[in-house]
Amino acid sequence: MTPQPSPQVGAAVKAADRAHVFHSWSAQELIDPLAVAGAEGSYFWDYEGKRYLDFTSGLVFTNIGYQHPKVVAAIQEQAATLTTFAPAFAVEARSEAARLIAERTPGDLDKIFFTNGGAEAVENATRMARLHTGRPKILSAYRSYHGATSTAINLTGDPRRWPNDIGAAGVVHFWAPFLYRSPFHAQDERQECERALQHLEDTVAFEGPGTIAAVVLETIPGTAGIVTPPPGYLAGVREICDRYGIVFVLDEVMAGFGRTGKWFAADHYDVTPDLMTFAKGVNSGYVPLGGVAISAEIAETFARRPYPGGLTYSGHPLACAAAVATINVMEEEGIVEQAARIGETVLGPGLRELAERHPSVGEVRGTGVFWALELVRDRETREPLVPYNASGTDNAPMAAFAATAKAHGLWPFVNMNRTHVVPPCNVTEAEAKEGLAVLDTALSVADEHTV
């Protein structure tokens, strides 16, 4: 699709937005949202006709790109057949979506509780864990993001929690492994894994194992930095949870459905949680959908005991039809394999090559189409390019980096001192190389702020 400039329409859209839309995570008078005219595949464009290669996949959810015709057709067909129906009934799209998801989840995670998104999935997973164990506390990592509902935001480890933290949510945070900025002064992955597991075990011991319902982890932390865990860490967490009767919850909201080059990131680590949350890529974000995949043991808890939770739109037919079509498209077109191949042959090597030439790149990490560049002022000291949670003039180097990328037609994912490289899972080799070329230019701006 060729963008057609229509600045007058764009101005009207922008004016209505500024008059009436209240935006997430923003000081309303300090933002300037881009008015988007359309999108297709890996690109979107504004009303001036300027096209952007989307290296954010929306908010890391358009795993099959924008406007995939087979998924659009499936939504249209479902709307013509049965637009909506209450969740207490058996509906074909809902049943089929649950079946297809359960077929791909690891182990015995064969029951699916549908929500409207990832935060509600985490909210319900923690509720299930507490009811299953009869215990109050939930452990989660500092470098994490789990959503913006009450429990999910308290589980979150980044600064968005601070103004929302009620201090009485029963959440205890701990340090998960991150070798580049090791809280354990480790020298290699083996040390980082061993010391992180010992830290978790110590936290469990001092909090009291009999008080802990669940450990909640993003399999690969996403917004917090795409921090791939060292070999053995997730298996070690599984063992600690088993030893103390703690429910192990993996949050795959961002990492799931092909993003890492596997259906789920857990597949890289040969580990099966008791509960797994998902959303985003399950239907490429075309209609809001999330859920919890539930083990047989936890499902049995509610076999004759009502589960005290639900949503009016749980398993919405339009959303589930989109999920069915998305999963089928991913199979038919080999999109999970494409994500793995692009990561291995284009993004990984390309980003590491950029790191060799740009002193602002401290570390490259990732897998599939799930990558992060850690930007620094000084490679030796690893001082971040901007301070933690920087804003205003303190954040100027990252703002300049992002502005340069946008000026050259790339929409980057920027968070704190990092840029994440998270295009659609079916991004082409040519598109990926186009994005790398723009990053090369934008990183030259970041280099100006190094020592």
The SS-based structural class is: alpha/beta
Distance between the termini: 44 Å
Strand order of the largest sheet: 4-10-9-8-7-5-6
What's the tally of helices? 13
Instruction: Work out the radius of gyration.
Output: 22 Å
The chain-level mean pLDDT equals 97
| Main beta-sheet annotation | 7 strands, mixed
Categorize the overall geometry.
globular
Oligomer: single chain
Question: Any overview of this molecule?
Answer:
- With 451 residues, the protein is of the alpha/beta class.
- 38% of the residues lie in helices and 17% in strands.
- The chain has helices at 7-20, 57-60, 69-81, 92-104, 118-133, 150-155, 189-207, 233-244, 296-301, 317-332, 335-357, 396-407, 429-447; strands spanning 36-40, 43-46, 51-54, 111-115, 137-141, 171-174, 212-218, 247-251, 275-278, 290-294, 361-367, 370-378, 383-384, 410-411, 413-415, 418-421.
- The strands form three sheets. Strands 4-10-9-8-7-5-6 form a seven-stranded mixed sheet, with helices on both faces. Strands 11, 12, 13, 15 and 16 form a five-stranded antiparallel sheet that branches.
- The protein is globular and about 60 Å long.
- The mean pLDDT is 97.
